[in-house]
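Q: How would the structure tokens look for this protein?
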Amino acid sequence: MWRLSGFDRYSEYMGWTFSRRGGPEQLDADSLIAKARAEAASSAVPVERRVPIGALDFRMIVEDVFYIAGRGVVVTGRISAGEVQVDDPIAIMRRGRRRRTTVVQAIEQFRERLDRAKAGDNVGLQLAEIARREIASGDVLTTPQ
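A: Here is the predicted structure in token form.
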């Protein structure tokens, strides 16, 4: 035998009413098979994944900035989206505003020169015609829009 506690009657005290839509379901074998087929067909439909606009663009947050005599400014960090190649134009963003546009002269990963780097790689990018004071840790490198 069920006993109701004070908490079980809370909905009655608040004036809530609960009702069931429709009546009790009585399904025969044919309707159960039809229902199973409908669920299987709906789950088998491939869902197209949409790529947000700009999601494939290059993006890297600068971790460190170095000046190497004879080479110039080198920034390091992990590429979070897209890919970059040598001679690609790069925009330097700080606080959501574009500060400068430059070009990638070289890409290095673990003391090895690369022609291309992709998302997830820890790299050093040598930037052309830029002074050390024009870029800082925390700046974002992106493809120019």
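The longest helix spans residues 29-44.

Strands lie at 59-61, 64-68, 72-81, 83-85, 89-94, 97-109, 112-114, 116-118, 122-127, 140-142.

Upvote if useful.
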